[in-house]
Amino acid sequence: MVEKINLRQSLWALECFFPPDFVASLPEESLLRELLCAQHSRAEMWRQHISDCLELALRYKLRNADLKARLQKGDWETFSATINELRCAKFLEKLFGIGSLRWHPPGRKEKVGEFEVVLSNLNKPIFVEVKTIVPRELERMEERVKDKLHQYVEQVDIPCFLHVTIRKAGDLEDFNGRSFKKFLREELSKVNIGDIEKLRKIPDYRDDRTGLHLEIGILPILGEPRPQSCHIGIISGEARFSKDHIHIRHSLKKAEVKLPEEKPCLVLLCSSTEFPIDEDDILNALLGTLGIHYQLISDESASAPEPEPFRQPDGFYQPRRNNKLSATGVYQRIFTERRIEGKLEIYHNPWAANPLDYSIFEGKGVRQLIKIDEGRMEWRD
């Protein structure tokens, strides 16, 4: 009995947002119901961790209709993103002390994911934006690209079927339907209707901006009368983001537009799953995709120099762009036997308009990648 009473008292914040009548109304198959009701040690650890995060929200008077709706929506991505915002705030409060956070004003449209770190030794507060990286599952990506292709292909008035092979899905967040339709009309207009009876291809469709690459074959429509619009007969190939760093850049792009210009800005990235965000993908996203320089020599007797790695100029950190972002942090969850703890790494922007002073995090267990001199960065623990 004592254990049950203590557990109930420790979860008081959780019950403020998820009262018993709401929990009872959740579908049996709901992931949220599983989290709130499952009777095993891991679920109890999760409930305690989430209750601690919600206690912070209540303490800072963040409880409003928007926060409650996001938590109770039942969509796991929305729930994860909301809890990530609170757990990042709680982690920073643990580093800098009670009262070090400020929601004033409480973010755009009262969103919890925007707040400031206010310290007595800082001339300006640090603006913090929290973004959750959501992995795109293969099945969902395939359905998404198929839906988009069907939608635009059937608006092209050329009587044939297409065999579309997805070689690279790229960043489907920015799929340009108008460009794709124009390409189809132009290429199919060059095809003689009689030639459609002989299975053939049109040029591949490539979108350098999004990375989408499609191979397109033409199939005849058998029987009369011929329909007057183009259709997709077959879609094959894998539809997934070409690289995880592309999705990370897209998340940073959405965060950057919200950042103020007059103070240091830190964007914290979290994973929506228990798997950490890969360091190589972060470096590719921020500093540029890693490449290798090979030197060709004409003298066959001479030994070739060792290949040299270099960063291509496609990173989010740029000398003349995205300068409002002072640094990017990666928050990771660490699971122990009894609790869920946090770990933070910070990647400073060497071209930031308002640099984030790395000494603020020194001695606090935060690993940081900082600028040493022109063209060179170094890890500091």
- N- to C-terminal separation? 45 Å
The backbone outline, from C-alpha atoms, is globular
Strand order of the largest sheet: 1-2-3-8-11-12-13-14
Counted by DSSP, the helix tally is: 11
User: Order of SSEs, N→C?
Assistant: HHHHHHHEEEHEHEEEHEHEEEEEE
Query: What is the radius of gyration computed over CA atoms, rounded to a whole number of angstroms?
Result: 26 Å
Quick take:
The protein is an alpha/beta fold. The chain has helices spanning 2-10, 12-17, 20-25, 31-37, 41-59, 65-72, 76-96, 138-153, 177-189, 244-256, 279-287; strands at residues 101-102, 114-117, 126-133, 161-168, 200-207, 212-219, 231-237, 265-271, 290-293, 308-311, 327-335, 340-348, 367-373, 376-380.
Q: Layout of SSEs?
A:
Layout: H1 2-10, H2 12-17, H3 20-25, H4 31-37, H5 41-59, H6 65-72, H7 76-96, E1 101-102, E2 114-117, E3 126-133, H8 138-153, E4 161-168, H9 177-189, E5 200-207, E6 212-219, E7 231-237, H10 244-256, E8 265-271, H11 279-287, E9 290-293, E10 308-311, E11 327-335, E12 340-348, E13 367-373, E14 376-380
List keywords for this structure.
single chain; 11 helices; 2 domains; alpha/beta; 381 residues; 14 strands; 8-stranded mixed sheet
What can you see in these coordinates?
The longest helix has 21 residues, at 76-96. The chain has two domains: 79-135 and 243-381, no CATH class; 138-237, no CATH class. By secondary structure, it is of the alpha/beta class. The model is unreliable at 1-8 (pLDDT under 50). The protein is 33% helix and 24% strand. It is built from eleven helices and 14 strands.
